[in-house]
Amino acid sequence: MAINGAAAELNIVVDDQRVRVAAGTTVAAALFNLGTAAFRRSVSGEPRGPVCGMGVCFECRVTIDSRPHQRACLIAVVDGMHIRTATEA
Amino acid sequence: MMAPLAGTDATLIVADVAIVGAGPAGIAAAVRAAESRLRVVVLDRGLETGGQIWRHMSGSPVPRIAQHWIAQLSRSGAQVIHGTSVVDVQHEDAEFEILADSSGSALRVRAGRIILATGARELFIPFDGWTLPGVMGIGGAQALLKSGASFAGKRVIVAGSGPLMLPVAASLATSGAKLILVAEQARRSAVMRFAAGLWRSPALVAQAARYRSRFLSTSYSTGTWVTAAHGADRLESVTVTDGRRTWREAVDVLCTGYGLVPNVELARLLGCETRDGAIAVDAQQRTTVANVLAVGEATGIGGAPLSLIEGEIAGSSVSPRGRVSDALLRKRAALEIAARRMLDAFALRQELRSLPTAGTIVCRCEDVSYGAVKDAACARQAKLYTRVGMGPCQGRTCMPGLDFLLAWQPDTVRPPIEPALVSVLSSELADDAAASILFNSSVGEAYQ
Fold first, then answer.
1. Phi-psi region for residue B223, left (φ > 0), alpha (ψ -120 to 50) or beta?
2. How would residue B322 be classed by pLDDT, with cut points 50, 70 and 90?
3. Chain B within 8 Å of A18 (Cβ-Cβ)?
4. Do the Cβ atoms of B447 and B37 come closer than 8 Å?
């Protein structure tokens, strides 16, 4: 959505950091744009990020507003959303 | 916020036809079925109508054909519910009851007929380092791009197989990515033969040329594939080979995928037969289970034009006065021939069977290595000894690759076919009278 030519932004909190991201994106796209590599840790502790982009692989799971295991690629960013990744193992 | 543990009420929708998937096939089926005043409900996992091929951001442009069909769907009276994953389906008498997780809440849909338009996913073949962040599907990269991700300035290699590589490479280049290489594993002779056979479809040739023109400064190398990805906590480089020469390329993103795999889990849960990994259907798109039809990529990979036609055929064939036109049947036959030629051209080379090493993780959910499963006779035996394919994705990511590598036959499908909250699985209808029946009654007059 464009307002006066500029992309609308909204405020979210990622790993306790307040950040501004473009509105109208998925959580996966927003985190990718912020440079997040480790969306989650695998059962043996490896960092993992998005693979399928369409809700099949479950690799992009993050905690959103205290709900764990949310597929970041299937959820749109919302103003005020709190996201926790596995960046700090 | 804690989700309630159990005992939540489910929402109930009663319809004549329940369609699973809102890509081209599901849309066309819904439009044709709703035309004859059938009550149609479409369940879709995504945030927008259009599936993967017509995925778009809210307000961003979509192809004209997509606009046409999405507009028809919104006028059709069919009810489309997004953010909804089907978890289970029961079959009682002449009625199906679908249980779905709809944005975290339980949804039950009762319908006399089901049309499966569950689409396809990418085929991944595991190799060392493919679990590093930065390695993603080719369709996965396209999906991220279309949902707002920026690849500007990133060094990207697209390596795998199939016609999907062209539009994705074009999108990435246009979005400002530094496209280093597009590597197609198929032999040059096979790709050229396929291209030469496209003279019957000048529109496809023009489309391919348009895509190619958007990344002309990058080499499109046939007979070339990636054997390993390297990096500490994220992708830093990949090893590329053309079978004679092997070299390293520094990259931020590797997009990889070896074609598409039909999504047949829901069909198999319903008891539908599959053939060569796709849902088996007859000329009317009927599966081997009464009142269950299937359309689109789930019945065999063939592209959006074929999916639309199959959707139209199924939507017409469930309609009481519906007639499937001979023109549609002829178009389907022609597109099926083209689809087979495409699959032949991009047949996977034998060398790919030796991509994984014993230490390569194959099951990304449970971190099971190739060495732990490669001597098993079948998927079920491997599952007895390891947890391969038993994590949240239920084997959707690793099993098609393992089938290719080890010639395993697919294991039985059990509910829930997607991870679901206990509150969804244990949801009940308070009672039919009290349950909220969402269907719009003005559209919902059943055909008499």
1. left
2. confident
3. no
4. yes
* ipTM of the complex as predicted: 0.93
Q: Phi and psi dihedrals of A26, rounded to 5?
A: -80, 165
Whether A57 and A51 have beta carbons less than 8 Å apart is answered as yes
Q: In chain B, what percentage of residues exceed pLDDT 70?
A: 93
Report CB contact under 8 Å: A29, B147.
Answer: yes
Distance CA A26, CA B78 (A): 26
Closest CA to B317 of B38, B27, B33: B33
| CB < 8 Å to A74, chain B | 45-47, 83
Nearest to B137 among A39, A46, A53 (CB): A53
Count Cα neighbours of B329 within 13 Å in the Cβ-side half-sphere: 10
Cis before A68 (ω within 30): no
Q: What is the pLDDT of residues A58-73, one digit of tens each?
A: 999 999 999 999 999 9
pLDDT confidence bin for B58, thresholds 50/70/90: low
Residue B435 has pLDDT above 70, yes or no: no
Residues of B in contact with A1 (CB under 8 A): 58-59
Q: How far is B133 from chain A (nearest CA, A)?
A: 5
pLDDT digits 0-9 by tens, B354-370: 999 999 999 999 999 99
Q: Which two tokens stand for residue B189?
A: 């002779």
Backbone phi and psi for residue B116, each to the nearest 5 degrees, phi listed first: -90, 120
Measured between CA atoms, the residue of chain B closest to residue A88 is B233
Taking the model in full, what pTM does it have? 0.90
Tokens standing for residue A50: 């998005």
> Quick check: B142 and A28 CB within 8 A?
no
